[in-house]
Amino acid sequence: MLIYTIRRVFIMIPILIMISVVVFSLALAMPGDALSGQIDPAISSPEYIEEKREELGLNDPVHVQYARWATGILQWDFGRSFIHRMDVTEVIGERLPNTILLSVMSLMITYVLAFFMGRFSGRNPYTVGDYSIQGINYLMLAIPSFVAAIFAIFIFSFQLGWFPATGSVGSGLTPGTWDYWMSKIHHTALPALVLGGLTTASYTQFLRNDIIENSQKDYVRTARAKGTPEGRIYNKHILRNSVIPIITLFGFDIASIIGGAVIIETVFSFRGIGELLISSIDRRDYSVVTAITLMLSVATLVGNLLADLIYGVVDPRIRVE
Amino acid sequence: MRKSLLLLLAMLLSISIFVVACGGDTDEPAESDADAGEEGTDEEGSDEETAEGDVPQGGTVTYGYTQAFEGIFDIAHYGGANDGVLLNLITEGLITYDEELMPQPHLADWEIDEEGTTITFNIQEGVYWHNGEELTSEDMAFAWEVIADPDYTGTRYSNVNMIVGADEYRAGEADEIEGINIVDDHTLEVTVVEPRPNTLLNLWTNPIPKAHYDGIAVADLEDADEVRRNPIGVGPYKVENIVPGEQVELVANEDYWQGAPNLDSVVYKVVDGAMAAELMMQGEIDIVQLPPSQAIQVEGDESVVLEDVEALSYSYIGFKLGQWDGEQVQMDNPKFADKNVRKAFAHAIDRQTIIDSFSEGYGQVINAPESVISWAYPDEADLVDYNYDPELAEQLLEEAGYVDTNDDGWREDPDGEEFTVNFMAMSGTDIAEPRAEFIVRNLQEVGINASLQDGRLYEMNLFYDLVEEDDADIDLFMGAWGLSPDPDPTGLWKQDDFWNFSRWSNDESEELIERGLSEEAMDIDYRTEVYSEWHQLVNEELPIIPMFSPTDIYAINSEVGGVSPFMRDATRDSHLWYREQ
What we know:
The complex is a heterodimer. The longest helix of chain A is centred in the N-terminal third of the chain and has 36 residues, at 88-123. By secondary structure, chain A is an all-alpha fold. Helices cover 74% and strands 1% of the residues of chain A. In chain A, strands 1-2 form a two-stranded antiparallel sheet. Mean pLDDT of chain B is 85; it is low at 1-52. The chains are: A mainly alpha, B alpha+beta. Chains A and B meet through α1, α6, α11, α12 and α13 of A and α1, α2, β10, α9 and α15 of B.
């Protein structure tokens, strides 16, 4: 197990290097840079822009720029955001709590919805209820998230007025107080609902199929033969076995916890990592774009690793030496 | 492994989708940067009367802005208008501008000596920073020293380099700037290198709090908590709380020098641009600038008042007349060398209809490259009006020798060669594409074989990359410029200006631009005359087709009064804002 883990970690290194090359060259391949948006005689001049480009090293050959960037990252220096005039780590650090709150809330919503829907479908397979749950699930999976977000804003914010439409916190609140956190949760609820509601399909199906499969197993037949009540069989014996594989899926969610939802955050003007990524791309703030993309790649890799390891723990057959 | 690669691919894919999608939020760069105007005048006059009487006191107003702020809340360091709007609420400068963009005394009045090189500022007494310190000459001198400092990280050096000794100070050769002389706490003399009629407009006149920034190295200022978390100014509102990138809560400055504001507090809130009109009608924000497409949504809504002001910008279609040789403009492209062809193009394009159908009528057709609010905008009677006249356009083309010789439906050039025209336009707004296609169709209607370059629009960065390097495929390009209050065309129009994108060079124009900055031009009538002549020259030579001067539209909650949009935002006289309870 230990050797397996170490081997997996080592394999990640060349992958990371490859990713860093791709991320960097794609960022560089975008036309323009942070300074090209400043073509405006009222605030700057061509001489100033040229001087700044030289100073920022944007005129250096690509490999020199890459080497400088990669060396910086190895020393935990992700550079400075040209737009925000702050260290990139600080810019990201400011947004991360919002994104994590959103992701955790949406994951909780996904889990809860998937748990109840999956359990119902699994217990009553091939019934009208099962089919309608499946229908709803796939419908939600098919709706693009930005469409769902716009409809949610229109209905719940504008028509019913239940949730605020933009932002991540209300005004006039002191950070750290109860009201402040309630306001934060209130602001996060609608995007989390959209985000969480749309992704229940895979979890629901996973749980449903597992329950159906388990209910054919010998131990269930034994329990039935002993006269155990049906409810007890499902809630205790089957559910416990069926939930475990789903827990392992959590590894894959780590990337989404950090990455949040690029689209949803943008639609809701929710100041998180996703919204930062989009606005930074838009304004050619390379250092932020590369740092976030790299961070998401690492999170995906680590998440995969975790998922595989948890599998090994849960199912000894997967444990490879 | 396959899973991770797939995820990465998916991620990159979604990024590329968004590069396209997000173009929709940004306007052409110059346009977005320059907003503003004048029509709030009569409105404001009546407000001032009421302000003297009894207007309701107390309440909160929420100022919406559609782009997240960076949080660099120092006037000498900030970059974009997103930070600038907030700074206008918390701090003020020595001078301000009147309706015609002429400088007016504000925190100080000034005298310029006979030679025109020494300006003496008399700073008002009784103006206090939010930390209780009085505003003195030291604060103004400090601002100049910071900007001229070798470690200065902002972009304003061109507003200080005219002071005697600034270059030496910046090069590290001098310990102080020679041209600054602090006479006493409220009197300050500054000497500039040469007399210029626009010195006062170009000179930096926004003080920064010296005592507040005490002990912070110039290089660290933009990172300092004193700028980012606890900024101060001399304006009517004080910063109470900052939620980075989202909102800033402000409270009234009871010690404001023009009297305490009517309101208790102001919230500066970032909102999604696409939802601005809806949020306005919901009452979530009280003041916001709207694009025309959203303004028509709120027209007729009783809770919202619309105010429109002419923007300090203009858009244009440029002809590529030459190229940049690294030093200066070489006007060597024969394609549009005949100015009658250029005039024919101008007459072929229906500018009024473009404003009416794509900007809902918000905007004004112009015939000179200047904002209509500027005092330097020439008298229309002196200019040729390039009104929509396809017959005249055809006639001009025919006279110039552009006729259809091979019966393919398109005109050939005088040598009988195919005459094709590439039109390049920026993507960004939802109207960008139909508008560009409309212009192409206008040209096709008079027999010009025009088409969109590569059949598509260009994203802003790529657009300017190609325009800057004089890409050989570009014939016509549609751009926009934001303007500063001073009408001097230097920077965009001279032979050695890199941003002279149409690559037009003309000796008479050079001479007029220089005359506009000469000592004689200290006389405003003379200067107006020179710029009028220059505009007539450009109007006749037509290196660009001036399209229109856009109108900025502000939506204001009908319960909120005293708001007067001007120049780039609606923050002027914000101490007079009030809210009916």
